[in-house]
């Protein structure tokens, strides 16, 4: 499989997010592959959590849908194993601290390694608590993605300094969800990060249109789209595959 | 570098978006904790506005009826707004004012913390928004109207189980949306550091007074302190100044709902396991994959799947004990205290009364129990009547 850093070489990366098990794990597998075919460079796979406090209503409901059909962390690892045979695209998990902690940090990252995951994003694990997973994750070659927010300010350089994989630049205040306008001064934050780190920077939270993606990709190394994808899945359910292909292609084309 | 640890519990597991706000809060609190002017202003508010010190009342009829230990009630139910919640809220609101914040947000279960926050906001001129689960706005309708009367906006939370846990989720989400001018008045000894410490300090006035009062009345320390536990703020407040007194038993009563052998309970210590949620490492009711369990209690204030990190540590070190009390036991105690002493307790506090009804008869007549009567029951009367099959609506 490819390393995360490779997708940013001479390429503006498109990163898509979906929730595993929404509407079923078989469909998740199919959707990931259609996103790849449409040009996605990396997919974030959400491990559903009962109480996703960084999520707006769209992704929160996807979490609940996935859990209600019996999606579990073990079944998600099985799906990753199956999909790894079909694609070399880097894959990262997005989940909350509790599912990882209760599963067992050692066992969780060992399974990540064995099934072929590349990284993990944990929204409720700030820099101050990273010791909870960092050593174990690193020992299994899993990148723990650093999140930087509009409120990070004087913390930016401390956060960015040791970032691996990519830096996840949170473009908006609040929770995930589609926004008509991105108000944060992304360019200034990107400059601050670049002063201390060569790690590629991907921007997410609120992005949904090709125009927004194109604008952001002028300075960022990649764009992350979540809620807009999950909304398509919510709307079209099992038949979302083709719609996802068209949508992801329109965004990838816009930043290429 | 993890901060705010109680043994293995505590910490700061929150999104990066909130980290600077939490650090700012910690700095402000560290400063004002030592600031005489701040402390004097708070004391004046607690005394003249909230009605402190609260009385320590000897429940003579209850003592005689149960035929064992002498029972005292620490009357937090007599505070302005009807519960212990005001102690914490006045402290945090004053702190928020000093920090230049103009807006308060808060979660609420039973509505007592929401009412207290709305009250402080009215008093000190803050904009105020309260988040409350739909289940709770239904069963505590009177408190919803009270908050509105006080000028607060009440947001009805319809996600998840629509109770206290979900109200906390949505208040955290709201704080990440608008953090610059907003202080989150957390209502219990939970959440990320420094909240468990701040709320405990503001609530510890309960045991500071109670310790002095019992020494004046009895010339000795009590044998046991009993309090109900939701997140654990009234209990930690009642325990705190007795923690060094090893001979004083500290007993928390958690909600067993329909019974700890059913799925319908909120008995975190009895049935929970170690986890990381709502900003803290502590015990939670959850499944093998770390999905938080949909908990249940007749009491909206105890209907929470976690417990504050300091309680988790007091349990680990065996300094405090935690017992489960069912809905039926709490309702019996609610009626018992009303009939025996002419005091209608909050259904939350009735959980503590229920355990004393079992414990007191097993103790000697010269032994002493203090119940922290965390709130009054006016808000619960209609719901208990319905529970008993009467068709009463507010
Ligand atoms: C009267 C009363 N007691 C107790 C509680 C439970 O909270 P805590 O455990 O933080 O004291 C509540 C919460 O709403 C309450 O209203």
Topology overview:
The complex is a heterodimer of chains A (256) and B (394).
Chain A: E1 13-19, H1 25-37, E2 42-46, H2 57-68, H3 73-84, E3 91-94, H4 97-103, H5 105-115, E4 119-121, H6 134-139, E5 143-144, E6 146-148, H7 156-160, E7 167-170, H8 186-196, E8 201-204, H9 210-217, E9 222-225, H10 227-236, H11 240-255
Parallel strand pairs in A: 1-2, 1-9, 2-3, 3-4, 4-5, 6-7, 7-8, 8-9
Chain B: E1 5-6, E2 9-13, H1 16-33, H2 36-49, E3 56-58, H3 60-66, E4 70-75, H4 85-98, E5 103-108, H5 112-124, E6 127-133, H6 134-139, H7 141-149, E7 153-157, H8 164-177, E8 182-184, H9 195-203, H10 205-218, E9 224-228, H11 233-239, E10 249-257, H12 268-271, E11 273-277, E12 279-284, H13 309-316, E13 320-326, H14 327-341, H15 347-359, E14 368-373, H16 381-387
Parallel strand pairs in B: 4-14, 5-6, 5-8, 6-7, 9-10, 9-14, 10-13
Antiparallel strand pairs in B: 1-2, 2-12, 3-4, 11-12
The complex binds pyridoxal-5'-phosphate.
Pyridoxal-5'-phosphate binds next to helix 5, helix 11 and helix 15 of chain B.
Describe the 3D structure.
The complex is a heterodimer of chains A (256) and B (394). Chain A is an alpha/beta fold. Helix content of chain A is 43%, strand content 14%. Chain A has 11 helices and 9 strands. In chain A, α10 runs antiparallel to α11 (240-255). Chain B is built from 16 helices and 14 strands. Chain B has helices at 16-33, 36-49, 60-66, 85-98, 112-124, 134-139, 141-149, 164-177, 195-203, 205-218, 233-239, 268-271, 309-316, 327-341, 347-359, 381-387, and strands at 5-6, 9-13, 56-58, 70-75, 103-108, 127-133, 153-157, 182-184, 224-228, 249-257, 273-277, 279-284, 320-326, 368-373. In chain B, β1 and β2 (9-13) form a beta hairpin. Chain B is globular and about 55 Å long. The N and C termini of chain B lie far apart (51 Å). Classes of the chains: A alpha/beta (256), B alpha/beta (394). The A-B interface holds A 49-51, 53-54, 56-57, 60, 64, 67, 72-74, 96-103, 123-129, 131-132, 147-155, 159, 170, 173-175 and B 1-3, 11-21, 159-160, 165-166, 169, 172-173, 176-179, 273-279, 284, 286, 288-292. Bound molecules: pyridoxal-5'-phosphate. The site of pyridoxal-5'-phosphate has 21 residues of chain B, from α5, α11 and α15.
